[in-house]
TrEMBL record:
Domain EamA intervals: 9-145, 159-292
Keyword set, alphabetical order: Membrane, Transmembrane, Transmembrane helix
Keyword Transmembrane helix: yes
Name of a matching Pfam family: EamA
Transmembrane segments: 7-24, 36-59, 71-93, 99-118, 130-150, 156-176, 188-208, 220-239, 251-271, 277-297
Name of the protein in question: Threonine/homoserine efflux transporter RhtA
UniProt family annotation: Belongs to the EamA transporter family.
UniProt superkingdom: Bacteria
C-alpha cells in the first residue's frame, strides 16, 4: 500500500536527494568566495564523487554479483557520463562563477521543457496541450525569476546565462538517456562508471590547473571536494535510486522539483542573496509547470488505458 512506512521512507529519500542538489549550489558558490577557482573545484568535486561511489560499492559485497562488464553498456554509460554528467558539472559550475546561485538553478531548471521536447522528438509526437502550457509557464517563470523587468539587459552576464542554458541541455540529455542505458546494472555501479569516465575528461581538460595552489590549499580543496561530491554526486544518486522505484517516476519528478526552492532558500541563508517577489512568483510558475506537465502525462496514460 502507498501508505506503508516504506512508501513514506521513499518519499523522504527523494526529498532529501533534491535538497542535497539544492544546497550544493550555494555551497559551491561559497567555495568560489573562499578563493578557489572553477577548475580546482570541478576536478576535486567530480573526482571525490567518483571515489566515494567506488568506496560505496566496495562496502556493499552483496551487490558484487551484479557487477558485470558489457562493452555496449559501458560505452553507453561512458558517453552519458562524459556528455551528460561531466558537461553539466562543467557548465553549471561556470554559471555559478558568473551568476547568483538562485538564478543559476533557475536556468538549470530549463531542463524541464527541454526534456519534454526530447521526449517528443524521440516518440515523433508533438507535445500535448498540457506540456505546451507547462513550457509557457516555465518560460514566464524564468523571465520573472531573472528579474528582467527590474534589471537592464546590459546588466546581465550573458556568458553566465549561456553556460546555464547549456547545463540545462546536457542535464536533459543525462536524464533522458540514463534510464535507457544498462537497465539491469546496479544503480550505484552505473553512477560510478558514468562519474569515472566523466572525471577522466574533466581531469584532461582542467587537471593542469587543479593542483597549482600548493599543499596548503590542497587540503582545503579535498575538503570542498568531499562536501560537494557528497552533496552533488553520492547522496542524490543513492537516495534517488532507492526512492524512485517505490514512489514512481511521476511523483518523483514533482518531489525532485523541490530542489529549486531548497536552492533559493539556502542561497539566501548561506550567501545572503535576496529573494524578490518576482523571483518567488517565477519559481512558483516553474514548479507549477512541472506539476502540470506530470498531470498531463498521467492524464494521457489514464485515457490510453480506457
Amino acid at each position: 500500500m502507498k501508505t506503508s512506512s516504506g512508501y513514506w521512507t521513499a518519499v523522504i529519500m527523494v526529498i532529501i536527494a533534491a535538497a542535497c542538489y539544492g544546497i550544493m549550489s550555494p555551497v559551491l558558490k561559497l567555495s568560489y568566495n573562499n578563493g578557489y577557482t572553477f577548475q580546482q573545484i570541478t576536478v576535486h568535486q567530480v573526482g571525490m564523487g567518483a571515489a566515494l561511489l567506488w568506496i560505496l560499492i566496495l562496502i556493499r559485497p552483496r551487490s558484487w554479483s551484479r557487477l558485470t562488464f558489457s562493452f555496449r553498456h559501458w560505452t553507453a554509460l561512458a558517453l552519458i557520463g562524459i556528455c551528460g554528467l561531466s558537461m553539466t558539472t562543467v557548465f553549471y559550475n561556470q554559471t555559478l562563477e558568473k551568476l547568483h546561485a538562485s538564478f543559476s538553478i533557475v536556468l538549470l531548471f530549463q531542463f524541464m521543457w527541454i526534456t519534454i521536447l526530447l521526449e517528443s522528438l524521440w516518440n515523433r509526437k508533438w507535445p500535448t496541450r498540457w506540456q505546451w502550457i507547462a513550457i509557457a509557464m516555465a518560460m514566464a517563470g524564468t523571465v520573472l525569476a531573472a528579474g528582467l523587468f527590474q534589471n537592464k539587459l546590459a546588466d546581465i552576464d550573458w556568458a553566465g546565462v549561456g553556460f546555464g542554458l547549456a547545463s540545462a541541455v546536457t542535464y536533459s540529455l543525462f536524464l533522458f538517456l540514463t534510464g535507457r542505458a544498462a537497465p539491469d546494472y546496479d544503480p550505484v555501479f552505473k553512477s560510478a562508471i558514468m562519474m569515472s569516465f566523466g572525471f577522466l575528461v574533466i581531469a584532461v581538460l582542467y587537471g593542469y590547473k587543479a593542483f597549482d595552489g600548493g599543499p596548503d590549499q590542497e587540503w582545503g580543496l579535498i575538503g570542498w571536494g568531499f562536501v560537494l561530491g557528497l552533496l552533488g554526486q553520492v547522496l542524490p544518486s543513492v537516495l534517488f535510486n532507492a526512492g524512485i522505484p517505490r514512489v514512481g517516476s511521476g511523483l518523483a519528478s514533482m518531489l525532485g522539483a523541490m530542489e529549486l526552492p531548497f536552492a533559493v532558500v539556502s542561497a539566501w541563508l548561506i550567501l545572503g542573496e535576496p529573494i524578490s517577489v518576482s523571483g518567488i512568483a517565477g519559481i512558483v510558475l516553474i514548479l507549477g509547470g512541472i506539476v502540470l506537465a506530470e498531470y498531463g502525462a498521467r492524464h494521457g496514460r489514464i485515457m490510453l488505458t480506457k
